[in-house]
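Hi Q.,

Before the meeting this afternoon, I wanted you to have the zinc ion prediction in hand. No need to reply - just skim if you have a minute. The sequence and ligand are here:
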Amino acid sequence: MQERFVIGMDIGGTHFRIGTIDKNCRVCAFRKISVKEVFCTRDALADLRGYLTLYMEEEKLAGRIDAICIGFPATINRERTVVLQAPNVSYMENLPVVDYLKRHFGIPVYIDRDVCMALYYDSRKQNLPREGIVAGCYFGTGIGNAICIDGRMLLGRDGTAGELGHIPAVGSKEPCGCGNIGCMENLAGGKYLAKLCREIYVNTPIGEIFTRHGQEVLLQDFVDRIAMTVAVEINILNPDYILVGGGVPNMKDFPIHFLEARIREHVRKPYPEKTLQIFFVPDADEKSVVGAGIYAMEHK
Ligand SMILES: [Zn+2]
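Predicted structure with the ligand bound:
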């Protein structure tokens, strides 16, 4: 019998990632291209279907795919069928993406938030059990958050649970992409580092910011705000495992030990601090695509 696969995809603000995953979660094909190469007309669903068809032809996958799964940097409805709000991929908002692709390809189609895919990937990589609470906090340009309870993602009433980046910060007047003012995302995400490089460290490339200025109060406070954000999650959930990842903690010379010390400082004593298990997870280009593959296999 021919080997079967799933297709994992990640549609981001800049890059479109797609890959073929076998039942052992091995990556058999992987592509990372500009979203502009995929979405070039005004009909986003037709563009997506067109690219998928082309991909399956080129990779000789016709009749060998069991499911398709896509991650978006977005809020998604509770039924996981429609992208509700996605500032960076707004052309995908309110389209029946699941129904449309299901109808055309005749196989199960799943969508979820990109951080859910990342959490599936990282949980698998760290060999974490399905039982219990696993929470992931990802500090990239913004802050991503996913909470998995006994192998199922926490959805919330409207499907928008896990918006940790939008906890309010005292005194901040920064407008946020979500429409509110003063969200933590603007103070503890990569956007803040970009702002520091624009306004204060004007001669420092962003990739050098911790190497050159990591000991200064502005950056120590920044890392402390990351710690506060993670501590909020821990204090609410008392998770079995907490994963911290994303582009920011993986930057050159990022003070990971200082971050862990600050997280422990902010977490309640003696519990949950005493039993806290924090994993700092590396970035991987194929993370979202493999995570989507795992997601598809777990939902089949
Ligand atoms: Zn916000």
